[in-house]
Amino acid sequence: MSELLAQFELDDAVERQYRLGEAAERAGRLREAAVHFRVAADQRLGDAAVRLAHVLFALGEEAEAVQWCTAAVADGFPEAEELVRANSEARQRFLEHAARITVGAPTFDWLPPAMPSRRISPEAIAARTQALRTLDRRYGGIACHSAVLEHLAAVEPMIVVDDTSWTAVAEAHELAGWTAFDSGQPGTALPHFAKALTLARQAENEALIASVLTRAGRMFLHHNAPDDALKAFQLGFVAAHNAWADRRALNDPARAIAALAGKVGTCGEGRARTLTLTALARNHLALGDLPAATELAREAVESARNLRSARADDHLRWLDQEAREAGALLLAEHVSSRFARSG
Predict the structure, then answer these.
(1) CB distance 219 to 181 below 8 Å
(2) Domain final residue pick, 77, 109, 126
(3) pLDDT (tens digit, 9 = 90+) per residue, 81-112?
């Protein structure tokens, strides 16, 4: 009887450890979760070895995670093999996604789990993100990662109802990825970086794409993946070059045209194509090439026919203003037709 009671108490204690591990994992306290799951896995409780391996992969502890996956497969949990495979492919999937983003491919394959409970302006989102970024710089990612995740959970649903919030939410995801990395959780950082890239592409924010890829590259370097780091840095360089070409200041039109001409061929229909064509028109106008500028302006307005974008309209208005100042009235007429239709 005493042996049965002792076994019952042991089983109950191990079960409690498993539940504590679940709670810690849900709360994002992965190192605490690993401690609890490790106790349960040592006693071969259910799928504890699989859960432990999942947490260890997120923490970047790949060697121990693979050992527990091997134990889980031996105990009848074949899904552990897929866990090993998925982890080994995670960086490759991220870099493939980053490459598509860099060439301008729209990839929006996820949505927040809920609609926003209240409206939050992009300015308010950005201000809170900046405050949390200051905390990260001063006290480190561990000190503020949970607060960043709470902030992200509150603001992410805004992307469903307000396309002007895409950049602000992308910056929040970028910070969530960075603080996850600084908290020793590289496996949880990549999904945040991937979502930041997706939203930055939706907003056509090349500078933010470059920033995210630079941070991902630094994380890869820290975790002994120099080849993947180099790929991330190279893609980031392309995005930075695109950001330079897209800027409003027209200090070097010939160089901007060379960069933009290569970019326009990668753009599908929509905002990216409109912005690139408008930038090309403005730079050709700056060089005094009125025929090319006028044709590009016509293409830009046609590309924007079904587009509702304040950012694209701002760029077209800049072109209209510059065309009138240069006496290019036919070009200005093409651009003003856009606003005559929308009005």
Answers:
(1) yes
(2) 77
(3) 877 777 767 888 899 999 989 877 767 777 88
Within 13 A of 30's CA, how many CA atoms are on the CB side?
23
Q: Is this model's pTM higher than 0.85 or not? A: no
Query: Are 80 and 69 within 8 A, CB to CB?
Result: yes
Taking CA atoms, 111 is separated from 107, 162, 198, 199, in Å, by 12, 13, 11, 11
Please give the backbone phi and psi of residue 316, each rounded to the nearest 5 degrees, phi first: -65, -35
Number of domains in the chain: 3
Phi–psi pair at 255, nearest 5 degrees: -65, -40
Positive or negative: CA dihedral 287, 270, 205, 311: positive
Asked whether residue 166 falls in the same domain as residue 62, the answer is no
Same domain, 50 and 121: no
For 245-265, the pLDDT digits (tens) are 666 556 778 888 887 887 777
Do 268 and 222 reside in the same domain of the chain?
A: no
